[in-house]
Design a protein that fits this description.
8-stranded mixed β-sheet, single chain, binds nicotinamide-adenine-dinucleotide, Gfo/Idh/MocA-like_OxRdtase_N, about 35% helix, globular, GFO_IDH_MocA-like_dom, 6-stranded parallel β-sheet, Gfo/Idh/MocA family oxidoreductase, alpha/beta, Dihydrodipicolinate Reductase, domain 2, Rossmann fold, NAD(P)-bd_dom_sf
């Protein structure tokens, strides 16, 4: 079987991880890249030995013979670019946040459905090794039905150095980082029926919120708290880890900063090391995220080969986008909101 021929649109800060991961997947060859910024285009093209380079995505899609396209631009271009891919009947991956509004996200999903085009949102947090270990632990039923959980991401990491645009938007932490935790909460505890949100801006040099606390009710009966902050000064800064605690009817679990998973059940307390694998191209502290990028991209290849829907399909991700929208609505109105679909 010949390799899948892929192309990337947007080769900025994060795309280097995606390109490294594609390079690790034998079944894939990235044959073309596109970026409006010629310097970045040439830097990445040289680094990954990709000869076909374009500044215009439409031109690339018209000229290249491709099996899929991977979009890693920032959110304002996502709708146009995914719709362009759908026009070319091209299976497409789109970075998170998938869209700037639920309205746009729905429109894009409808366009891809009508074109018969597979669409995966690059929502990689749920593909982290420690989070997959928690998912398996819940599935084993050792702690029973979860009734309470906390998903926490608190750091003072200077995220603006690598991604200056994060300081410039009216929205920041919920749309950029909270979105991952909201998706993880859905993944582990099921769909959300209500959400109440409080936001703060501690760093006055940025425009959006850098601290958010969300309280959610899940249809299956659990209550969860999602809290995230880029303004914290913890003793041990574990950027970019998601820490969690889950209490079930028969026990509890805790995912800690040393990647240990502690489980308390009727048998007592046990502890497992659920550290991510340090890929040869990975760099601490990003290695956990970088491994999840490889995991989700392998999943995409499997889905394309088998013709199955990705776990984070556009359709699935509508529920995560709905939570983001409901969180901002609740923060503004001071009310508890039912996420729309
Ligand atoms: N999943 C994660 O863990 C994670 C982490 C960081 C960033 N991200 C996401 O990745 C996406 C990209 O973020 P980034 O920090 O790499 O941004 P970036 O600004 O560094 O890179 C985006 C690149 O896209 C190019 N671009 C924009 N519009 C284009 C267009 N229409 N055609 C061609 N090129 C275009 C820009 O020139 C730029 O080089 C964002 O959606 C961000 O939220 C995800």
């Amino acid at each position: 079987m010949s390799k899948l021929r892929g192309a990337m649109i947007g080769v900025g800060f994060f795309a280097v991880n995606q390109l490294n991961a594609w390079h690790d997947i034998e079944d894939v060859e990235i044959v073309a890249i596109c970026d409006r910024n010629p310097e970045r285009l040439n830097k990445m093209g040289d680094r990954f030995a990709i000869a076909a380079r374009y500044q215009d995505a439409a031109e690339m899609l018209a000229r290249e013979q491709l099996d899929f396209v991977d979009i890693a631009t920032t959110v304002s271009s996502h709708r146009t670019l995914v719709e362009l891919a759908a026009d070319h009947k091209m299976p497409v991956i789109c970075q998170k946040p998938f869209a700037t509004s639920l309205h746009d996200a729905r429109a894009v999903v409808a366009t891809c459905n009508a074109a018969g085009v597979p669409l995966m949102v690059h929502e990689n947090f749920r593909w982290q090794t420690p989070i997959l270990a928690v998912k398996n632990m819940l599935a084993s039923d050792r702690i029973g039905r979860p009734f309470w959980a906390r998903f926490s991401f608190r750091t003072g990491y200077d995220v603006y150095a690598g991604q200056p645009y994060l300081a410039e938007g009216d929205r920041f932490i919920i749309e950029d980082t909270g979105i991952h935790l909201l998706d993880v909460a859905r993944f582990l505890l099921g769909e959300v029926t209500t959400i109440a949100t409080s936001v703060q801006r501690i760093n006055n040099t940025i425009r959006g919120e850098d601290v958010a606390t969300m309280l959610m009710s899940h249809a299956a009966g659990a209550t969860s708290v999602v809290d995230c902050s880029f303004a914290s000064r913890p003793e041990f800064d574990r950027f970019p880890q998601t820490l969690m605690e889950i209490e079930g009817e028969k026990g509890s679990l805790r995912l800690d900063r040393d990647f240990s998973l502690t489980v308390v059940d009727s048998e007592g307390t046990s502890r497992a090391d659920v550290s991510p694998f340090l890929l040869p191209w990975a760099e601490r502290p990003w290695h956990n995220i970088q491994e999840s990028v490889l995991n989700i991209q392998k999943h995409w290849v499997q889905c394309l080969r088998l013709g199955t829907a990705p776990a984070t399909s556009g359709h699935d991700n509508l529920k995560t986008i709905a939570l983001v929208e409901a969180a901002y609505e609740g923060a503004k109105s001071g009310t508890t909101v039912r996420p729309g679909l």
